[in-house]
Amino acid sequence: MKYCPPARRVDRISFGKPTHHYVDANNQRIPGVTTILSTGLPKPALVNWAANTTAAYAVDNWETLEQSKPSERLKLLQKARYEDRDAAAKRGTEIHALADQLINGETVIVPEELRGHVEAYARFLDDWQPEPILTEVTVVSYTHGYAGTLDMIYRLSDGTTILADIKTSRSGIYGETALQLAAYRFADVYLADDGTEQPMPPVDECAAIWVRADGYSVYPMTCDERTFLDFRRVQQTAAVLDRLPTYKGEEIFHGTETPA
User: Which of 27, 150, 192, 202 could form a disulfide with 184 if both were Cys (CB 3.0 to 4.6 A apart)?
Assistant: First the structure.
């Protein structure tokens, strides 16, 4: 998780979906904001989610499980939560892509299963009339060694500029979204369409937009210097956890023996 800037300034940060790897001009991996938060923050809610998702799968697929061999039954239950996670991630990626097209005035073809989400986002655009400044751009902090991709910076009719992130999870907005947005806000540069690096534009406020099939909500986020310092603490924790070794395989030393 540690990042050491190259001898010369990075010319380009490449971003590859869906793995979201950020690589500098020396082909050195730069930690991503979401990876840092995933590694450095505890996720107690995931424990309940995993248990509930597995239980729901068992209830909904009881006959299939009864007809399966015990070993196959176990595999089905074990992978249920991952299938649910991957489906949610795919849905979120598709909604983000459609949202980016909509805010930039493009015509979109909407799959039926995403119609509710896209219509909700269209209502957000109608209600708020945001003028896009940046959308779906890679940002990087050479100072602190991280990169990420922000959803959008837009301007309202009163001149207020807002850095916002779209969330499509069923459970709503988590507090760590403020850390994510603060990391983007205090990045050094963003990667423009022509491949050049440009200074991050100043923003007045930050927000999270929760897009659901039945509507949308906009939540103001506090993303000041103190919030950014909290992100840096999480980044340091993630770096420690990333450095810790994993011991497995052949046992080398045990008991009261003295190693040679």
Answer: 150
How far is the CA of 59 from the CAs of 54, 176, 230, in angstroms?
9, 32, 41
- What does the block give as tokens for 1? 């998780």
Please state the pTM of the whole predicted model: 0.80
**Residue 24: predicted pLDDT:** 77
* Residue 43 located in a structural domain: yes
Can you tell me which residue has the tokens 């950020």? 22
Q: Is 149 part of any domain?
A: yes
The CATH number of residue 232's host domain is: 3.90.320
Residue pair 102/118 in contact (Cβ under 8 Å)? The answer is yes
Residue 94 belongs to what domain range? Answer: 14-241
Report pLDDT digits (tens) over 240-259. Answer: 988 887 776 665 555 555 55
Burial (0-12, 13-18, 19+ Cβ within 10 Å), 61: middle
Inside any domain, residue 173: yes
3-state secondary structure at position 132: strand
Alpha-carbon gap, residue 184 to 25, rounded angstroms:
21
The answer to whether residue 112 is domain-embedded is: yes
Residue 46: pLDDT above 80?
Answer: no
CA end-to-end distance (rounded Å), the chain = 33
Question: Alpha carbon of 65 to those of 51, 58, 249: distances in Å?
Answer: 17, 7, 34
Tell me the three state secondary structure of residue 133.
strand
Amino acid of residue 132 = P
CA 213, 219, 223, 228 dihedral sign is negative
Q: Which residues contact 202 (CB under 8 A, 6 or more apart)?
A: 161
Number of domains in the chain: 1
